[in-house]
Every structure is written in structure tokens, then in C-alpha cells.
Amino acid sequence: MRVVSLVPSVTEIIISLGRVKNLVGVSHSCILPEGINLPVLTSTFVDTYASSFDIDTKVKESYKEGIPLYKLDPKKLVSLKPDLVITQSSCEVCALPENEVINIVNKYLPGTKVVTISPVTLGEIIDSIFYLGNLLDAEESAKCKVEEIKETFSKIKERTKDVKRKRVVYVEWIDPLMVGGNWLSELIEMGGGISVGSPEPGSFSVYTTLEKIISESPDCFLIAPCGFGLEKSLREAENLLPLLREYSEVVIADGDTYFNSPSTKIKESAEIVAHSLYPNLFPDFEYVLEFYKKFPRVT
User: Fold this and answer.
1) In this predicted structure, what is the pLDDT of residue 41?
2) Across residues 198-212, what is the average pLDDT?
3) What is the pLDDT of residue 257?
4) What pLDDT is recorded for position 250?
5) Do 86 and 102 form a contact (C-beta atoms < 8 A)?
6) Three-class SS of residue 257?
7) Which of 40, 109, 158, 270 is the most exposed place for a label (fewest CB within 10 A)?
8) What is the DSSP letter of 264?
């Protein structure tokens, strides 16, 4: 089966299942293994290296003016002759909108199957791994991946069952401030925390204010901006960090790789959350220290 994946998390899952051979095209945001080069079918005018404020401003301007954030190259898509095109419907800011993909495929490749994969909870992420495994004749690989993830989840739950739970605010965007939803609240609860200030699991991220997140009396601010790696997240939070540390410890993590993508990396996401909250309970997770930085409260 020839597959075009326009969703970075789907591409990650396909690769982790050992089915990179099925991929014939990807989006500009998809990360491929070293030595693997595939046609890129999408592009964006948004400068992903810009600040969170500038990116937010550009996105809002594009919506106001009716300018699409992303473009899909129909000629390149046709030339690849895919059997399947995979898109998403969770976030029009993160990737090409579902309806636009369907319209282009129906116009230029009538009859080609389009599948939408948009998990927003841990259970749905696991379901998507099984689904792609079945689709690509990689059922055994999918089963092994899911067993590995569930084993990690069980280990974390067992070790944190008797802890005094920390109140955690998860910040998914810095300027303007947004608190994260989706599966992150579940990861925080699993890791021995209480998710405060965020929407219910499975809900989308929402705008908030500095006053509101401080009023939640958190024990920890977990900052992992969508699309930002650790170094950029540290730079973006530079001005905010001293203020937050007056009220709580602060953890800044690699959101792009481990927090914003509903893929097999939820295993590492869970380990980062658990270790950052209770490092003494998880000495076997010390490898995750390279993916986050912790700043104690200043008293």
C-alpha cells in the first residue's frame, strides 16, 4: 500500500511500526529517519522559527484575511499515485485541514481513500496505533508497541499511587498564554499530579491569563509549547520564568518531540512527566533529563 501521511504523529507511528517502506510522501512537518528522503507535499508561510507572539499574530491575521496557513501540492500528490492519504481534523493551526485534503483528493485523485486520524486521549492514541498496524499489515509490531506503552503506564501508576499529589498547570503556548488539553491532563494524573487550570481530557487547549494560572496555586508549572523544542522553549520562557518561580517550581520540556504529538512517543511523554514530578521514584527514567529542565521555586 502506497501511503501519503500529512500528519507528523501518523508518520512517527508508521515508522515505529517498521513500515517506512509504505510511505511515498509526507508533510513538511514530518520527521524522517536519517538517510530516508521522501517527497514533501505541503508548505506554510508561517515562520516556525519566529517567537510564539509572532506566530500567534500571523495565524490570527491569516484567519482574518481568509488566507490558508498551509498548501498542498496537487501535482506532486497525483504523481505519487497513493492508495491512501492520511489527514487530521484536530487542529487547523498544526496541519492542513481535513476538508481541504478531501476536496483536493476528490478533485485530482477521485476514488483514492482518505483517512482521518485525530486522537485526543491516551486511549484514542493507542487505538490509532492498532488501526495503523492493521492497515499496514504490522499487527504484531503494533501489539508490541502498545504493550510497551501500557507496561510503562502501569509502572508509573503503581509507583505514584500513594504520593501526595502535586497541582500542575500545563502551559502549551507562552505568548499569549494557553493551557493544554487533550491527553496531557491524563499524563499528569498518571504521573502523580492533579491537572489544574486545563480543560477536561480530550478537550482542546484554551487561552488563559497569568493571573488565572497563578490563582490555581500550582506546585509545578509544566511548560512545553506546541512545536517548540527544548532550547526554543527555554528562550521563549526566559522572561516568564522568574515570575512563575515566585509561586512554584517550573519544568520546561521539549514539546515538539514529546508532548504535542499523539504517537508512540506518549511512552516517553509519560516518563518525562513522572520523572520531573517525582525523580526519586523513577531513577530508571533518568535518561529523560536531556528532554527537560527543572527550576526550583525561589523563596
Assistant:
1) 96
2) 86
3) 92
4) 98
5) no
6) helix
7) 158
8) T
Q: Residue 288's domain is classified under what CATH number?
A: 3.40.50.1980
Closest CA to 97 of 118, 78, 77: 118
Confidence of residue 45 (pLDDT cuts 50, 70, 90): confident
78-92 per-residue burial string, b: 16 or more CB within 10 A, e: under 16: eebebebbbbbebeb
Whether residue 94 is contained in a domain is answered as: yes
> What is the structure's pLDDT at 15?
96
Quick check: is 226 in a domain? yes
C-alpha cell belonging to residue 169? 498547570
Query: Which string of DSSP letters, residue by residue, matches 34-82?
Result: TT----B-EEESS-TTS-HHHHHHHHHHHHHHT--SEEE-HHHHHHH--
Percent above pLDDT 70 for the chain = 100
For residue 245, being part of any structural domain is answered with yes
* Boundaries of domain holding 248: 162-295
Average pLDDT over residues 1-8: 96
Work out how many domains the chain is built from and give that number: 2
How many other C-beta atoms can be found within 10 angstroms of the C-beta atom of residue 28? Answer: 16
Question: Does some domain include residue 155?
Answer: no
Do 171 and 108 reside in the same domain of the chain?
no
Question: End of a domain among 64, 88, 118?
Answer: 118
How many other CB atoms sit within 10 Å of the CB of residue 1?
Answer: 13
DSSP letters for 86-133: EE--S-TTTS--HHHHHHHHHHHSTT-EEEE----SHHHHHHHHHHHH
Beta carbons of 171 and 180 less than 8 angstroms apart? yes
- Across 113-149, b (16+ Cβ under 10 Å) vs e yields ebbebbbbbbebbbebbebbbebbebeebbeebbeeb
| Cis, bond preceding 201 (omega within 30 deg of 0) | no
What integer best gives the mean pLDDT of the chain?
Answer: 94
| Spatial contact of 200 and 206, defined as CB atoms under 8 Å apart | no
The mean pLDDT value for 57-62 works out to 88
Residues 86 and 192 grouped into a single domain: no
Answer yes or no: do 287 and 168 share one domain: yes
Q: Do 275 and 177 share a domain, yes or no?
A: yes
